[in-house]
Amino acid sequence: MQIDAVILAGGMARRMGGNDKGLVELAGKPMVQHTIERLRPQVDHIMINANRHHEQYCQFGFDVFSDQDSGYLGPLAGMITAMDNTEANYLLVVPCDCPLLPTDLLARLKATLEQNNADLAVASDGKREQPVVLLLKPQLRQSMKNFLDAGERKIDIWYAQHKYAVAEFSDQPNAFVNVNTPEQKQQLAAEIAQ
Ligand SMILES: Nc1nc2c(ncn2[C@@H]2O[C@H](COP(=O)(O)OP(=O)(O)OP(=O)(O)O)[C@@H](O)[C@H]2O)c(=O)[nH]1
Ligand SMILES: [Mg+2]
């Protein structure tokens, strides 16, 4: 059983003033480095999906891919690029801006997916689903391509077309703290420093 992960860092990060969110420093290291450290013990192989600053992203030692369609079509564009570049049985998808992801993220998503015989499993912090934290079967590629080719972009609408299950992480809601703005970054940096 091979499981690969993709870190989505392909957005425009407008709320971060257009700075590349994955490369923005948090508590002394780039945000994507925090994510890598969380994922590394959990998966066989990591890919980074970025549309800018490839040279910097390559320094982390993993393959870096741009969206095939560079029109900033949203997270699904990054996921489909990853599906084209993996032969894994499952693909774990995470964003570059959730530095405290659970250490048992994959284990719980995989158990949920398999117990429900689902095609994809999305994480929930107990209050809301985290639409870009999920485990999915790369066989869904054609369906995702058809969806994007039809001009559709909304991730939850695509999810709803498949058998999907929700993995609960209500015991660790802070694991999904999401850094979108410089203020959120400062706040988290202060919490980490404590
Ligand atoms: N590959 C790819 N990833 C994207 C795209 N848009 C957003 N993402 C990623 O999806 C995740 C969630 O998106 P947001 O938190 O809205 O990030 P963002 O769009 O860069 O930031 P804002 O411009 O402030 O909304 C992040 O990991 C982004 O990098 C895109 O067009 N392509
Ligand atoms: Mg966005």
From TrEMBL:
Listed Pfam families: NTP_transf_3
Residue positions binding GTP: L8, A9, G10, K21, N49, D67, D97
Binding-site residues, Mg(2+): D97
Catalysed reactions listed for this entry: Mo-molybdopterin + GTP + H(+) = Mo-molybdopterin guanine dinucleotide + diphosphate
Keyword Nucleotide-binding: yes
Ranges of residues in domain MobA-like NTP transferase: 5-155
InterPro entries hit by this protein: MobA-like_NTP_Trfase (IPR025877), Molybde_CF_guanTrfase (IPR013482), Nucleotide-diphossugar_trans (IPR029044)
Cofactor(s) it depends on: Mg(2+)
Keywords in alphabetical order: Cytoplasm, GTP-binding, Magnesium, Metal-binding, Molybdenum cofactor biosynthesis, Nucleotide-binding, Nucleotidyltransferase, Transferase
Sample GO molecular function, one term: molybdenum cofactor guanylyltransferase activity
CDD domains given in the database record: MobA
Protein localization: Cytoplasm
Highest taxon listed in the record's lineage: Bacteria
HAMAP family: MobA
Role noted for this protein: Transfers a GMP moiety from GTP to Mo-molybdopterin (Mo-MPT) cofactor (Moco or molybdenum cofactor) to form Mo-molybdopterin guanine dinucleotide (Mo-MGD) cofactor.
UniProt comment concerning the protein's domains: The N-terminal domain determines nucleotide recognition and specific binding, while the C-terminal domain determines the specific binding to the target protein.
Oligomeric form and interacting partners: Monomer.
Recorded family membership: Belongs to the MobA family.
UniProt name for this protein: Molybdenum cofactor guanylyltransferase
Species, as recorded: Shewanella intestini
Gene: mobA
